[in-house]
Amino acid sequence: MSFLSSSPRQRARTRLLSRALRTAALALPTGLAALPVAPAWAQASARAYAIGPGPLAQVLNQYSAEAGVFVSSPGTLTGGRRSPGVQGSFTVDEGFAALLAGTGLRARQLSDGGYVLHEDAAGGATQLAPVTVTARPESATGPVLGVGATHSATGTKTDTPIIETPQSISVVGAQQIRDQKAQSLQEALGYTPGLMPGIVAKSGMFEDTMSIRGFEANPQTGSYYRDGMRYMINQYNGKQEPYGLERIEVLRGPSSVLYGAAAPGGIVNSVSKRPPSERIGELNLDAGSFDRRQISGDVGGPLDDAGKWSYRLTGLFRESKQFVDYSRDDRTYLAPALTWRPSDATSLTLLANYQRSKTIYPPAVPVTGSLRDNPNGEIPRRRFLGEPNHNTFDLASTSVALLFEHAFDDTLKIRQSLRQYDADLRMRYVLLQGDVDARTQRRVARSARGFDDHTTVFTSDTNVEKRFATGPVAHTVLAGFDYTRSTYNSDRLRGNLPAIDAYNPVYQAGEVVALPWQQRRNKEHRLGIYVQDQLKIHDKVVVLLGGRRDQARAENRLLHAPGSDSSDRDSAFTGRAGMVYLADNGLAPYVSFSQSFEPTSGRDRNDNRYIPSRGRQVEVGVRYQPAGQDMTLSAGVFDLVRKNVFTPDPQDPAFLVQTGEVRSRGIELEARARVTPAVDLIAAYTYTNAKVTASNLPGEKGERFNTPRHVASLWADAHLAQWVAPGVKVGAGLRHVSARPDRPSSGSLGGPGYTLVDVRLGYETGPWAYALNVTNLADKTYIPSICYNGLCDYGEPRRIIGTVSYRW
Q1: What is the pTM of this model?
Q2: pLDDT value at 465 more than 70
Q3: Are residues 110 and 241 in the same domain?
Q4: Region entry Disordered: which residue ranges (predicted)?
């Protein structure tokens, strides 16, 4: 991809992008209203809709989001009425007429472009007095209304417009997850800047792991949160089910000021589906590649006429294989949710889920025969070098959360969140011990391994939000504390296995023997106290200031090695400061500084306790969000440093010292826009220059740090009503990842770059929807991760999934 420069000059690019965005902004019509409503060209143009029948309020919400307009009406006017939906190509006014047919209501456009509902006077009813139109704000925990989200709580723990947050945030909503048929967090975030596949690709079969701004992000590094609370604590706690999520949000860069210990690249916060205020329902049937069979459903709505009680039940059952021989990808997921809202000021939500996943921890394949040529030929992608009677990953997890919120008045609010997470794992796997042998170039040594794990995680987060003004400055102050207590008990097994022929594998006839090897008992306590102030000056300048104090205590016991128990304590202060300028034309340049820390364990040569690893980042960026359009453009440059990294002690290499350092610098671009009434576009580009800047390991200083320089993606959706038929929608995407670097100091090899194509064909008619999703359309063979210790992992070949849905 020749348009990707290999040596960008960050400041020059930032100035160039800013000028381009400013020019685009000046080209827009002036005099737009303060509330974002559809511009005249959008209201006069016809576009395709495929919205099925349902409760009037629900259909109105979906239509207003797709049309880019806002409508207001008394709740008593829509309650109890149903809409026939909107099927076909319409202007905004024609669309309102279609969805209101038979309801006895009409939509009237006001002078500012908004709409108000009223009784149809022609039908003999009395017309209501005009209702003031107000923007229907997007909730930080609700559905994404349009192509790009406008609000998020991940960056501030308050419901804040993303454009007012001085740090990079990307949001993927449930609609995008559905359209792209994402099967994991990694796939759902595949069209998001700053993210790339994890260092080890095979782990994606059983865990959520990826790289953010060049640094590994997984549950063990404290990078994953659910509903704002830490979720899972290690890579053996499995994967989250995307169908159970309303949003997936990525806050890039150090984030310890609000979330405590975490890797410096950023955090991923998933938002659970919650009970809706209107009735919803859907049922989906899937079938596809690798003998896939799946049924899923999502129902919810109010339980009483007053709307004080509402519920949601989301479920999924799947039986499937994966592209590797003797593999499986079975899952059961059930997530009930209940909300009690005794008044407009108080709410209590119960979120629970049960998940059972049966898959495998697949062995890799030798580097000679995959990345490197082998005289015996290429090792097939489906090759399984484990043992069919041994390899398994059987995980059962439960999670129960309570979310409480109470507003004392318009200026003071308290929130309390609690979650208990439990997981039990039985894992058996085969570990390959290097490349093929030098003599035959066919056989590879192996050993048998096993884990029997039990994990518990209790999390609590309590905060108070206070809004007040001091002269021209509006303050939103947040103060709170969070606490996490976790346990991880692991009984590990080990056994011998004979070598296997990578080209003609012969498996063991009987059961593989793996005997007890290690017994680990780990406990951890984390407590953090944080304060944050969001200052808005004259509605033009937003200043964000925050600080946090953390304390962490870890107790590690090795029952198989008495006397080697350890107890480590760490504490750290982290801060953040940032500023955003909100221009009238939709431009919002920002600058920020943020810090992170990660606890460490162990002692150095002098028996001194190690100190936490630290991260710090400076970021400069700009967002462009023109009023009245479903469009968000963003660009950012960052300089991220991780200090106190372990490196060999120069006086005794058997010990470690913390004088290592890694620096990651880069540029991120993101565009989410409805470019025409019929076409939506999602585009992202990331340039990352990550290097080891300090190390005692010979040859390591100056090496690139595991990360491809360029990652680019483009996804487009188009409604084809004008050219084909109403209800027809197609989508297509490109994902490009450049080559990963070799690292001679550690013996790892970087895989070559690759480009993948994804497509989707959909058709909706009434309550029925049909879709066909294909990932890796060209069936490209690729290696998405580094090759280490003589082993590599293949990426997934072409996958086809067909879906039939019924919605009501």
Answers
A1: 0.85
A2: yes
A3: no
A4: 139-161
